[in-house]
Protein: Alpha-1,4 glucan phosphorylase
Amino acid sequence: MTSSDLRDSILHHLKYSLGKDAAHAVTQDWRMALSLAVRDRITDPWFDATRTAYAGQNKRVYYLSMEFLIGRLLQDAIVNLGLLETAHEAFTDLGLPLDTVLSNEPDAALGNGGLGRLAACFIESLSSLAVPAMGYGIRYEHGLFKQSFVQGRQIEAPEDWLQQTHAWEFERPESTYHIGFGGRVVQKDGRSVWEPEDGLIAQAYDTPVIGWKGRWANTLRLWSAKPTQIFDLDRFNSGDYIAASAPETLARTISRVLYPDDTTPQGKELRLKQEFFFTAASLRDALRRFESEYDDLHLLPQKVAFQLNDTHPAIAGPELVRLLHDERGLPMDEAIATARGCLAYTNHTLLPEALERWPVELMGRLLPRHLQIIERIDAAHAAEKPDRRANALEDGEVKMGELAFIMGHKVNGVSALHTDLMKQTVFKELHRLHPDRIINQTNGVTPRRWVLGANPRLSTLITDAIGDGWVGDLEQLSGLETHLDDAGFLDRFAAAKRGNKTDLVDWVQRNQGIALDPDAMFDVQIKRIHEYKRQHLNILEAIALWQEIRDNPNADWTPRVKIFGGKAAPGYVFAKEIIHLINDVAAVLNADPVTSKYLKVVFLPNYNVTLAERLIPASDLSEQISTAGKEASGTGNMKFALNGAPTIGTLDGANVEIREHVGTDNFFLFGMTAPEVDARRELGDHAAQAIAADPRLARALDAVRDDTFAPGDPGRHAGIAENLSGHDYFVVCSDFTDYWRAQREVDAAYADQGGWMRMAALNTARSGWFSSDRSMRGYLADIWRTGPALGADGE
Ligand code: Z2T
Structure:
């Protein structure tokens, strides 16, 4: 396709699809016209992929996820189709910068954080690998809330991505399922039949996901809740207009909004309804597809794999058993074994408060037949392996992790350390009973979005050095190592980073009115705000550094900008206090005439995928400072390393593997290990001991406690100071001293720009293993036992 072909297609869509004259088109019209022109290029590979998968009788992979954090889709599609240059030229002809058009697209925030973004990377990789697959989730009307700051405090506003038109989804009025709730179980001809009391309709919306080089496209199918009955005409006729639309409002509530908690389940009835709603619709859809091709249910495990992204879709176990046994007549034990053959479960956290449990009462009221089946599954499992401590039902609750474990043939963790800890802690008993079930699949990220799309400067440099094979085979980045002794290469590497940083500086100036120095080190921590992620450790270090610079303003300080981004769950009070503290510290430090040339703090509001794409390529240092044992993997850590930002981090999650890959000299390690953290906590007064041993820490905490950052309002941040000097569960104080030491090593390393660029480039060269293509190959080999439907040559 030439740029004039693309331009013609854009103009065609502008006129005939959008009904706009070029003379009156606004940016949104151009964005839609371009999207439609690009979408036309996706349709054939998409249809071809469907046809190939049917013809080849390939096994299909279904990725069930409550969240798909897809962000913007237009640039990604253009990049994967190899049309980036073409699109640039087309818009040069049309007199509008392509970037203006691309940034008009809403960011679809249908997820909270890492888990949802991982699902989006996996779906893209499965398309790039030409594996027949489908993502199943919920088409939330409102994604993750929009964050703003008022006097430093987080304010939430509803997100409304669907208010803006977009071109990616196809409504499927014919793909609908009736989903029931409540009611009772009756016996008919010796069989149990669930007779739900309430119901609603799940309707499909399909988004094609095009893979690298446009060879293959899979579908992301999101379910929207519709009422079975739009309108109560009797009520309307009798004048009760509000009540007349009640059934509609009630049904639509199910897909109305994404729950904004990343690691604390709300235990709300609506949440369980959402989980069952999308899981039941997805299973029935997949089973319908299977039954259109095969007539022997025993083939199901050979032809269908369901991957459960955490326990949110864990009701898939009992629901699939119900579909196979109650509705299709397979004997119960065969139904359980067949379901298990199809199901596998990925665990994403060990935090005890994050593990989903539902009261038996609620489960029985909403899903009475499922509760019976869960009891039956538990009984069968107990009979097979008589052990009391490994049941899904316990103390009047259904434990969804145990249920998913028992009903999956494989259970995986998301980094080597996390998988080991799963075996030793939450699933200790179940692991003893099923020693081959738990396996590791370390997370990965898609290089198309996170390097090629987000960092064109670096990508051009890489391709100039080693050719363009790296995009589809990221381990080829190791070929960069031979270029690292070439001063010209390192200069160009530095220039790419510098270009990305000046772009960011301009953007921050325009959007926040803050002036940043592009020569300063950009030290970045972007992720959900959580005590275990320890943004408060980072800001404490900033406070201590500020105090030290004030003591000694003429020393040779390495200029730094600490950049934060991230949302706190609306109900997580302490996380919100951390945000408030960071903003208050930023106000004081940035206004300090003595220190602000060496140290600034910026908290960018409304962190999302789009902002990550802007920030990561412009970063010098990646903050991955969670309490060891608490971060299951992390995926931001991988994006930073790939984009040439070395890590300062603990031995937690995938940091451990990143450090092994990039080399211990190219990673700033600090802090206690997971067993050391556990031992340290045994000391009741670990925080007090750490504070007594480090005057810098004591002084920084004093400034948090007094009114240094809350002029006229002493005590505003006392809660944080009290927590840290008191029980300090996440051992911030005990890791502070070593964190400070590592940060000063970072300062010294950054001061040597030649050495720093080499270290940064080594991070890029040695991070190719962290591609989500590699993760997907691991799942294909060890869990799904299938592979691509196309060979490397596209046949
Ligand atoms: C989430 O993003 C993660 C775990 C969760 O546990 C829930 C959510 Cl929303 C229920 C994250 C982990 O915290 C992170 O370490 C990991 O990299 C990511 O999932 C993907 O595995």
